[in-house]
Amino acid sequence: MNAYMNQYQNNQILNASPEQILILLYDGSIRFCRQAMHAMDENNRVVQAEKISRTIAIVSEFANTLDHEVGGHFASDLDALYGYMIRELTNANIKNNRESLETVEDLLIDLRSTWVEAIEINRQEAQPAVGQSEKYVAATF
């Protein structure tokens, strides 16, 4: 069963749009952050460190892929927020601070929600309004 699930997940990623991959990465970072909190509650420092490390890797990738030329002030603000999250995650691991993990989880959830909304708005703007395509077709004949 696990092999089928891995194949399904691989196919899902290979066929995903960049927007879908972004949301999948946010889902993963939130999941790892929650797993780190659970490990912290269980006093399992090894798993805690692993899950925090995975969260940091994803957040770092978000920061590394920002296009400051295109994104301007927005990209700079996101970069600062990602840097803050990485510091909070590091603090959580070093000081065994659950509050830092909760802060990062809240930020990741908010950012994910914002991206989902932005993707939906972009999709709606990219599609012609209902009836517009029919008017275009009628006008060309």
What do these coordinates show?
- With 141 residues, the protein is mainly alpha-helical.
- It has one domain: Up-down Bundle (Four Helix Bundle (Hemerythrin (Met), subunit A)).
- 87% of the residues lie in helices and 0% in strands.
- The protein has helices at 2-14, 18-41, 45-64, 68-95, 98-126, 132-140.
- Helix 3 packs antiparallel against helix 4 (68-95).
- The longest helix has 29 residues, at 98-126.
- The termini are far apart.
Helix-residue proportion:
over 70%
Fill in the CATH topology: Four Helix Bundle (Hemerythrin (Met), subunit A)
Q: Strand percentage, roughly? A: under 5%
Mean pLDDT: 87
Low-confidence stretches: 133-141
Order of helices and strands: HHHHHH
Supply the number of helical segments.
6
Keywords:
0% strand; single chain; disordered C terminus; 141 residues; mainly alpha
